[in-house]
Design a protein that fits this description.
Rossmann fold, 8-stranded mixed beta sheet, 4-stranded parallel beta sheet, alpha/beta, single chain, 361 residues, binds aspartic acid, 10 helices
Length: 361
């Protein structure tokens, strides 16, 4: 090789080096500019394994670690810088207030320690997802978005919805517009508030809806768009502090139906239930036998809240309910009224205060 060829080769090498260095700077600064999203894994179908690609039920929930989900989705790197931690890896039927408290405290600690975190994503089984979301809506102390996400189809299934749901949840958590909207449920390109969002289908991928009140927003290919925001107290506006709670009182839900007996309520009174939510027919109705027992419960200081099993509309205070000492659950779904009541009792609130929180949250 003559001197000129050596010189040309050297120049080419130098040029390639500059291009490579330039790209590196460009990739690094691009990544540094992106918001930081913290993902907490709790399990469910989104982290599940089935025996075949057509196993759509009878699969095993909570088998993949959250790091495997993130690794399998390199597209996340275009949306946010990701940090992830597996808190627990369970099917959501096994979720408990003890884990809820741990989740709330973890989010509160991370938010306090690291102002760089733009938002949080929580993976969860869909069965009780809305309960965890609602609990966190009442207890996390941050204005940054907390987005709860799951999947209707196992991670191993054909057309699994988990990866797109997770990608979209990160988009919401990274969005400036998602601030101050409390805890949200993001599934199937739709954003529901934790207060009203509820699972309305056993297998369809369009599982979550907010019935009367509708979606908060949507996640489309061009971005996250919000159309309304929660008006009730939540997160930094909430009075509840989980760190001060050490015990969860027993609070139950009793459904009413034609011919419903009262002895189940008698059993709950004997078992030390501190609160009972009536999942009533219509606007919070119960059978005569149940009504007698609810009166017996309130006479003993047990808080009874009437909600509606219809999933739509409000339960309002009336003369008969008032005479029985029963509180009206507004438009909270029975299992959501149960969580608010449990949190209120665990926080030491009395009956007038519980009546107030039913109007404010
Ligand atoms: N069995 C699952 C669970 O709730 C269902 C799901 O994740 O969608 O954990």
């Amino acid at each position: 090789m003559n001197l000129l060829s050596k010189k040309i080769l050297f120049m080419k090498l130098l040029k390639n080096l500059f291009i490579a260095a330039g790209c590196l700077v460009c990739v690094t600064s691009h990544a540094v500019d992106l918001p930081l999203v913290y993902i907490l894994g709790t399990g469910g179908t989104i982290q599940s394994k089935g025996d075949t690609r057509m196993t759509l039920h009878d699969y095993r929930a909570g088998r993949y670690d959250i790091s495997e989900l993130v690794e399998a989705l390199p597209e996340l790197q275009d949306v946010a810088r990701i940090e992830a931690k597996q808190v627990t890896n369970i099917g959501s039927p096994s979720m408990t207030p003890v884990v809820w408290k741990e989740l709330a405290e973890t989010i509160n600690a991370l938010a306090a320690e690291n102002p760089e975190i733009a938002g949080f994503v929580l993976t969860h089984g869909t069965n009780t997802l809305e309960e965890t979301a609602w609990f966190l809506h009442l207890t996390v102390k941050t204005d940054r978005p907390v987005v709860v996400v799951g999947a209707q189809r196992p991670a191993t299934a054909i057309s699994g919805d988990g990866p797109m749901n997770l990608y979209n949840a990160v988009k919401v958590a990274a969005s400036e517009d998602a601030r101050n909207k409390g805890v949200m449920i993001a599934m199937n390109q739709q954003i529901n508030s934790a207060r009203e969002g509820t699972k309305t289908s056993a297998y369809k991928v369009e599982a979550f809806q907010s019935r009367d009140l509708g979606l908060l927003g949507v996640i489309d290919p061009d971005g996250v768009r919000f159309y309304r925001e929660p008006t009730r107290r939540h997160t930094i506006f909430s009075e509840f502090s989980v760190s001060e709670i050490s015990e969860w009182p027993r609070v139950d839900v009793v459904e009413s139906y034609a011919g419903a007996p009262g002895d189940i309520i008698e059993f709950l009174i004997r078992s030390g239930s501190k609160g009972i939510v009536l999942s009533g027919h219509g606007a919070g109705g119960s059978s005569p036998e149940q009504s007698t027992q609810f009166k017996a419960a309130t006479d003993q200081g047990i808080i009874v809240i009437a909600a509606s099993r219809t999933g739509s509309g409000r339960v309002i205070q009336g003369t008969r309910m008032e005479e029985s000492g029963i509180l009206a659950g507004d438009n909270l779904l029975p299992h959501k009224a149960r969580i608010l009541l449990q949190l209120a009792l665990a926080s030491g609130l009395d009956k007038p205060a519980i009546e107030r929180i039913l109007e404010q949250y």
